[in-house]
Known about the structure:
The chain is built from 6 helices and 5 strands; from the N terminus they run βαβαβαβαβαα. It is of the alpha/beta class.
Amino acid sequence: xxxxxxxxxxxxxxxxAEVLTLHSYNVMKAQDGAQALELLRQEPIDLVIADVSMPGxxxxxxxxxxxxDYRLKDIPFAWNSGYRELRDILQVEDSRIDFKxxxxxxxxxxxxxxxxxxxxxxxxxxxxxELEAA
Length: 134
């Protein structure tokens, strides 16, 4: 499964990427929404896990762009946030969000969640190359 992690906190981003890579996930990283959109348009991705609050294009705007793009709209999208205050949670409510994760979630719980995700059909590199050749 190919996961795109999006977070402006490079320490957290690199740590989470390393953990997921050690558990056999194919991980791509972006430090903001604009960089993530660029990667999404170049690579087949099975899941986006994006921080909500980032400078520039934040996770909320990235989600909006992904849902409006017919090529990307079916990619599962998870907001990953450290916010715990009610006002912050209410600010990011969106019924089209597939998953809401907490940055303090224990790694075993995150891995359990990811193990139950399935890659999108036709989203592997082989499937993409076959479609382009047709």
